[in-house]
Design a protein that fits this description.
The chain is an alpha+beta fold. It has 2 helices and 9 strands; from the N terminus they run H-E-E-E-E-E-E-E-H-E-E. It has one domain. The strands form 2 sheets. A 7-stranded mixed beta sheet has the order 6-7-5-4-1-8-9, with helices on one face. Strands 2-3 form a two-stranded antiparallel sheet.
Length: 162
């Protein structure tokens, strides 16, 4: 038999044996941590990927004078805006809340109506995040799965060491 024909038939057989509806690869999946608990084995129901193009820091101060003792709060928030990078992504902004008092953080929440992703971080992460925003291209990634698992992160692209 002709060797060229044999190779062509083998390549065709291999191609046809691949799943027809193969799921598209996740964008930026290289930035996900190992899935030791196998929570991300399925294709995500939703992926939002945003490249940050601008940010604003808001340090609030409020005092509710009708309560005793008078509580004084000073919320620390960073608002991120940018451009969606994946097909079907509709995210328009990300709100980062910093909490100094809670023992556990709130889960990431994506509000479809306002197109806003809200993430909570311990206040100790504030300096790290501002440093990233000042010095690197930053991406925000949000994945949600049918099993209820949610992953969200801020990450840079690959950066060469100096």
């Amino acid at each position: 038999m002709n060797p060229f024909l044999t190779r062509t038939c083998a390549a065709l057989a291999l191609t046809l044996s691949l799943p027809l509806a193969a799921a598209p690869a996740l964008m930026h999946s290289q930035f996900l941590p190992p899935d030791d608990l196998t929570l991300r084995t399925e294709t995500p129901d939703q992926q939002q990927l945003l490249q940050v193009t601008e940010y604003a820091v808001v340090v609030g101060n409020q005092r509710q004078s009708n309560q005793q003792p008078i509580p004084v709060t000073s919320p620390l928030v960073i608002r991120l805006k940018g451009k969606s990078l994946n097909k079907g992504a509709a995210i328009s902004q990300v709100v980062l809340n910093f909490d100094a008092e809670s023992k556990s953080l709130k889960k990431p929440v994506y509000d479809d109506k306002s197109k806003t992703l809200t993430l909570s971080y311990p206040v100790a992460q504030y300096r790290v995040i501002v440093d990233l925003l000042r010095n690197d291209t930053v991406y925000v990634q949000f994945l949600s799965y049918a099993n209820g698992h949610i992953w969200a992160d801020l990450h840079t692209g690959s950066v060469r060491a100096r």
